[in-house]
From TrEMBL:
One of its GO terms (molecular function) is metalloendopeptidase activity. This is Peptidoglycan DD-metalloendopeptidase family protein. Residues 189-284 form the M23ase beta-sheet core domain. InterPro entries: Cell_wall_metabolism_enzyme, Dup_hybrid_motif, M23ase_b-sheet_dom. Keywords: Membrane, Signal, Transmembrane, Transmembrane helix. It comes from Acidiluteibacter ferrifornacis. The chain crosses the membrane at residues 42-63. It comes from the Bacteria.
Amino acid sequence: MAEKKDKKKRLIKRLKNKFRLVILNDTTFEEKLSFRLSPMNVFILFISGSFLLISLITILIAFTPLREFIPGYTDVSLRQNLTNMVLKVDSLENDLTVKQHYLNNLRLIIQGKLPSDTLLNDSALVPQYDQEARKISKEDSLFRDFVEKEDAFNISNEKAGKSFGLLSGTYFFTPLNGLVTGHFEPKKDHYGVDIVAPENEAIKATLKGVVIFAGWTSETGHVISLQHDNNLISTYKHNSVLMKEVGDVVKAGDAIAIIGNSGELTDGPHLHFELWYNGTALNPEEYINLK
């Protein structure tokens, strides 16, 4: 017991021993600076400096735009604002086209001519235009009937078309930025899209929701599925690492997995992404900008 106390005292004494750090002029050996240090002072200074450096880096990331480059900290409002701006620009273009058409017709009226739309609607003046318009309209109606009958047996359009009005106000977050190499082909039992991206890329939740499955299958490797509002389910397959567990609540844009090459049905690092609504597979490319 006494030996341990002696060792402890000697250790404390060594840590408190004073040393002098001297900086000399190499030519004249003139003393420029000197510091009295001890091992205890050096250790405390190192710990304090490390803590200060970590604090500064944390503040820099938390309160500057640098956090946008960290997976899971992406600002979802940025994509919503961008989508709103695109919709406004599209509306302005349509409004500009209508006004331009109105000005053209007004110019024709001032010149004493008939507007172009009047010529097509007045069969007494130019009957051949009216007959041609009737012919085109009839063929167009037959073509629309044909397309509707074909789409009635298409699993991707069976409910997606009816529900588009409900989902039109939903802003989907792009799960992964990359190259789409496999498209939605339900006839080939491919109910999603394949997106290729560099290794170690983070995969993000397309909407806020709850993790309902996070596990492994032999064919699709590490898989995670999220339950969203409006009976929507999104599924992410072939991951290398899953970052969430069943029951976790996630926000749109949160990192939930890392891109991988797991499972038998894969030939390289990519994400297989599926979107389901009321038990029906939707084409993600119709709702999400995956480019």
